[in-house]
Specification:
Elements lengths: L1 H14 L8 H15 L2 H10 L5 H23 L5 E3 L1 H14 L4 H20 L2 H8 L2 H22 L3 E4 L3 E4 L5 H18 L5 H16 L21 H4 L7 H29 L10 H18 L4 E3 L3 H6 L5 H14 L11 H15 L11 H17 L2 H18 L8 H16 L6
Antiparallel strand pairs: 1-4, 2-3
Helix pairs in contact: 2-15, 3-4, 3-5, 4-13, 4-15, 6-12, 6-13, 8-12, 8-16, 8-17, 8-18, 9-10, 9-16, 10-16, 17-18, 18-19
InterPro entries: Azg-like, Azg-like_bact_archaea, NCS2
GO molecular function, one term: purine nucleobase transmembrane transporter activity
Subcellular location: Cell membrane
Length: 445
């Protein structure tokens, strides 16, 4: 008993858990909830990168290991309740834009990811990323938080089948004759009722209840096996390093630039949004932001060596934050469950998108509260903020939403006679986003 108390006391002091008004139990529950909400990446990432010709088993292992590395670094170095894993947007760009559309072999494309990761890490060491994040106006930071909230709610509505693609109107309401849709609806009501009653761990309880309902009704298939050894990492390990000679092709540097910029602002926007939700922000700045960015950079570098696309801070961390996660111990718990997942991977199949959808929708509601702090009465601030908020879900991309705000903010502030309030970094970011949109063929050439 004394050893247990000593261990818990050591954990409490190391992560300042009591000091932040939390407990080991609450942090552990938050970590489990975050893991359950993002565990889908273990199966989605191999599927997407498999379309590029990569070995799915190796990608599964690389995904888990990079998530373990990133979450441990974020928890221990920065003491943030934010998990890291390979980003969905980056893997889609890697496969469908670089490998398939541009005709670049996946081995060469992985060399581009590795180079971008090295540059990313150097920028973090030089504190360039930290300087940029601190220079972003407070109103745009609030807009990022709200935009991410709407974005993840949209992801949840889509994953749950409540919103579907529509040829005439882009999106439309889903069919309520599909049985699995009712799993999401059930989960939303369970979580919402528990939240209204202020029950601790409402989101996690809702996830468990929805999973059990799915298993009981047969809408979710029970796994055939419980334990499965992790696949070998050999087919993808260090492939990028052995193909660095392709970087003599100028086309590859365009790929590196895009990976670098997208990863930079995806993570920056997500970190800011989650920090706002967790109450970490102080005086418009994130304490220990340098350590957080370094954790993100090193995990991206590690992932590139193991054979996966860039890692990113996960918006699903908001699910754990919503139930009380406030310290890095939450992220460490996430890493622990990713480690377990490598052995018990068959069990993860019961946590379907319909199960996690309800949590994402409810968490989106919590994050959108940041809208109240934006100066909507000042149009030069209102329009850029609005574009950030709607840009993320409507383009299905966090970086594009940020780009819309950064492209308009300096111009409108100048038009309003407030040019002196716009720092040089914001003007530099305007140029950077113009270049990014040009490279992505969004702007005319």
């Amino acid at each position: 008993m004394s050893k247990t108390r000593t261990l818990s006391g050591g954990i409490d002091r190391a992560f300042h858990i009591s000091e932040n008004g939390s407990s080991i139990k609450r942090e552990s529950l938050a970590g489990l909830t975050t893991f359950v909400s993002m565990a889908y990446i273990l199966f989605v990432n191999p599927s997407v990168l498999g379309d590029a010709g990569m070995n799915k088993g190796a990608v599964f292992t690389a995904t888990a290991l990079s998530a373990i590395l990133g979450s441990l670094l974020m928890g221990i170095l920065a003491n943030y309740p934010i998990a890291i894993a390979p980003g969905l947007g980056d893997n889609a760009f890697f496969t469908y834009s670089v490998v398939i559309a541009m005709g670049i072999p996946w081995e060469d494309a992985m060399a581009g990811v590795l180079v971008a990761s090295v540059l990313f890490t150097i920028l973090s060491f030089l504190k360039v990323r930290e300087i940029v994040i601190d220079a972003i106006p407070q109103d745009l930071k609030y807009a990022m938080a709200a935009g991410i909230g709407i974005f993840i709610s949209f992801v949840g509505l889509q994953g749950g089948g409540l919103i579907v693609a529509d040829k005439s109107s882009l999106v439309g309401i889903g069919s309520f004759t599909v049985p699995t849709v009712w799993l999401t609806i059930f989960g939303i009501f369970v979580i919402a009722i528990l939240m209204a009653k202020k029950v601790p761990g409402a989101i996690f309880i809702g996830l468990v209840a929805t999973t059990l309902l799915g298993l009981f009704t047969g809408l979710i298939k029970a796994p055939h096996h419980i334990i499965s050894m992790a696949p070998s990492l050999k087919p993808t390990f260090a492939v990028g390093l052995t193909h660095l000679s392709v970087m003599s092709d100028p086309k590859m540097w365009a790929v590196v630039l895009i990976f670098l910029l997208v990863a930079f602002f995806d993570t920056a926007g997500t970190l800011i949004g989650l920090a706002q939700q967790a109450g970490i922000m102080k005086d418009n700045k994130m304490p220990r932001i340098g350590r957080a960015l370094m954790a993100d950079s090193l995990s991206m570098l590690g992932g590139a060596f193991m054979g996966t696309t860039p890692t990113s801070a996960y918006v699903e961390s908001s699910a754990g934050i919503a139930i009380g996660g406030k310290t890095g111990f939450t992220a460490v718990v996430v890493a622990f469950f990713f480690l377990l997942s490598m052995i018990f991977s068959p069990l993860l199949t019961v946590v379907t998108t319909q199960v996690t959808a309800a949590a994402l929708i409810v968490v989106g509601v919590l994050m959108v509260s940041a809208l109240r702090d934006i100066h909507w009465d000042q149009f030069e601030i209102a329009l850029p903020s609005f574009l950030v908020v709607i840009g993320m879900p409507l383009t299905y991309n966090i970086s594009y939403g940020i780009a819309f705000g950064f492209l308009t903010y300096p111009i409108l502030m100048t038009a309003a006679g407030r040019r002196k309030e716009v720092n040089g970094i914001m003007w530099s970011m305007l140029i950077v986003f113009v270049v990014l949109l040009y490279v992505l063929n969004i702007l005319p050439k």
